[in-house]
UniProtKB/TrEMBL annotation:
<dbReference type="InterPro" id="IPR015931">
    <property type="entry name" value="Acnase/IPM_dHydase_lsu_aba_1/3"/>
</dbReference>
<dbReference type="InterPro" id="IPR006251">
    <property type="entry name" value="Homoacnase/IPMdehydase_lsu"/>
</dbReference>
<keyword id="KW-0479">Metal-binding</keyword>
<feature type="binding site">
    <location>
        <position position="367"/>
    </location>
    <ligand>
        <name>[4Fe-4S] cluster</name>
    </ligand>
</feature>
<dbReference type="InterPro" id="IPR050067">
    <property type="entry name" value="IPM_dehydratase_rel_enz"/>
</dbReference>
<protein>
    <recommendedName>
        <fullName>3-isopropylmalate dehydratase large subunit</fullName>
        <ecNumber>4.2.1.33</ecNumber>
    </recommendedName>
</protein>
<keyword id="KW-0456">Lyase</keyword>
<dbReference type="GO" id="GO:0003861">
    <property type="term" value="F:3-isopropylmalate dehydratase activity"/>
</dbReference>
<comment type="subunit">
    <text>Heterodimer of LeuC and LeuD.</text>
</comment>
<dbReference type="InterPro" id="IPR001030">
    <property type="entry name" value="Acoase/IPM_deHydtase_lsu_aba"/>
</dbReference>
<comment type="function">
    <text>Catalyzes the isomerization between 2-isopropylmalate and 3-isopropylmalate, via the formation of 2-isopropylmaleate.</text>
</comment>
<feature type="binding site">
    <location>
        <position position="307"/>
    </location>
    <ligand>
        <name>[4Fe-4S] cluster</name>
    </ligand>
</feature>
<dbReference type="Pfam" id="PF00330">
    <property type="entry name" value="Aconitase"/>
</dbReference>
<keyword id="KW-0004">4Fe-4S</keyword>
<comment type="pathway">
    <text>Amino-acid biosynthesis; L-leucine biosynthesis; L-leucine from 3-methyl-2-oxobutanoate: step 2/4.</text>
</comment>
<feature type="domain" description="Aconitase/3-isopropylmalate dehydratase large subunit alpha/beta/alpha">
    <location>
        <begin position="13"/>
        <end position="293"/>
    </location>
</feature>
<dbReference type="GO" id="GO:0051539">
    <property type="term" value="F:4 iron, 4 sulfur cluster binding"/>
</dbReference>
Length: 426
């Protein structure tokens, strides 16, 4: 509750802490940042901007190196001379400043940040990547910012915000077999549209959300930006506490970090008890259809991975659905665990051997084909099915290619048949 006893949203509470005074949605604040993240694509510009800001200063030091994390994940191992140069520059900056730096082998930023314990409920986190909203799965207000804003954060540890309104999705019901959290978030995005939550803090709540394991929650928060959301918050509970106790020594759960009863929000209610597997169709993430409307579409390449669905649990769904069946003739199946930690779990479970026997390709942790800037690209006229979060024209390669988005289960079923397939039929 605020000082005048008005109910507050979790976003208003987090920004009140960060601003050092009670603030409400709609107010502009200069907020103290708890954690800042940058990576190999957007980091170099942020570093250049930082030195520009500091050009007249004797001491060119970041505000607090212990609160900044630099990762290499979009173009790893360096896939061009430019990427190699960027990595050299960022390694040098991190070393000089004493900043935490996960190098080319650790994995995708939005998997590594939570798994290494760099985020907790009530934090205000910024990352120079639009999917930084993913850490809302841990009850933080976490959002993507530009490289120049990141330069300002490096220099001052502060950033201005307009405290966002809240759009709350209350999702009830039990997920049917072969239907996952990716199907929930695709359904919500299809319902409200890619602009539906524009500049709002999305909250995801209800029995269908609270019953999800952390890996499935991360998928939902990761895609808040795909409905225009400034954040994608799932309030911390026992699941969050268990996840964080393994990663943050002396972590203590604080029930304060949730929206008060009656806090102002735009409310949307759903029951997903009869939800079908969903597919986002070219060329927009909100062009969502039930899989039954697109099944039979021939696919050339299937990508299982990314910060959206590249965790061990996602890859295990694929392994269990495929069993010892081969990848369909003429189809490329590319599997990329989202981090070294997740890769090791997949390896120890024996799934790498299973996938190699099936004729799939397994790569070291990275973004891979997700943003079409590295490897595994689609050529003219090719159709890709991916477990990632974006399918804009040309996203995974040729502007003449087509990208569909789905859950790992739909991806696995389609890898077996060579066409988009309803996982409930396997
Ligand atoms: C940096 C970019 C490639 C990104 O990772 C995130 C972004 O748009 O900021 C993406 O998935 O599009
Ligand atoms: S995996 Fe894809 S969505 Fe996630 S950070 Fe990398 S490029 Fe962006």
């Amino acid at each position: 509750m605020s000082t005048n006893n008005e109910p507050m949203t979790i976003s208003e509470k987090i920004f009140s802490k960060a601003a050092g005074k009670t603030v409400k949605a709609g107010e502009f604040v200069l907020a103290n940042i708890d954690r800042a993240m940058t990576h190999d694509i957007t980091g170099p510009l942020a570093v250049d901007g930082f030195y520009e800001i500091m050009r007249d200063k004797e001491e060119k030091k970041v505000w607090d190196p212990s609160k900044i994390v630099i990762l290499f994940d979009h173009q790893v191992p360096a896939d061009s001379l430019n990427a190699a140069q960027n990595h050299i520059m960022l390694r040098k900056f991190a070393k000089e400043q004493g900043i935490i730096n996960y190098d080319v082998y650790e994995g995708v930023c939005h998997q590594v940040m939570p798994e290494k314990g760099h985020v907790k409920p009530g934090d205000l986190v910024v990352g120079s990547d639009s999917h930084t909203c993913a850490y809302g799965s841990l009850g933080a207000f976490s959002t993507g910012i530009g490289s120049t804003d990141m330069a300002a954060v490096f220099a001052s540890g502060k950033l201005w915000f307009k405290v966002p309104d809240t759009i709350r999705f209350e999702v009830e019901g039990k997920l049917p077999k072969h239907v996952y959290s990716k199907d929930i978030i695709l359904h919500l995005i299809g319902d409200v549209g890619a602009e539906g939550a524009r500049y709002k803090a999305a909250e995801y709540a209800g029995s269908a959300i609270s019953s999800l394991p952390m890996s499935e929650r991360m998928t939902i928060s990761n895609m808040a930006i795909e409905m225009g959301g400034k954040a994608g918050i799932i309030e911390a509970d026992a699941t969050t506490e268990a996840y964080l106790k393994e990663r943050i020594p002396d972590y203590e759960f604080d029930p304060y970090w949730k929206s008060d009863e009656g806090a102002e929000c735009e409310l949307h209610k759903y029951d997903i008890s009869n939800l079908e597997p969903q597919v986002a169709c070219p060329h927009n993430v909100d062009n969502v259809k039930p899989v039954t409307e697109v099944e039979g579409t021939k696919v050339d390449q299937i990508f299982v991975g990314s910060c959206t669905n590249g965790r061990f649990e996602d890859i295990e769904v694929v392994a269990k659905m495929m069993g010892d069946e081969p990848v369909a003739k003429g189809v490329r199946l590319l599997i990329i665990p989202a981090s070294r930690t997740e890769y090791m779990k997949v390896l120890r479970a024996g799934y790498i051997e299973q996938f190699m026997e099936a004729g799939a390709m397994v790569e070291s942790p990275c973004c891979g084909p997700c943003m079409g800037g590295s490897f595994g690209l689609l050529g003219d006229g090719e159709v890709g099915l991916a477990t990632s979060n974006r399918n804009f024209k040309g996203r995974e390669g040729s502007p003449q290619s087509f990208v569909y988005l789905s859950s790992p289960a739909t991806a696995a079923a389609s890898a077996l048949t060579g066409e988009i397939t309803d996982p409930r039929k396997i």
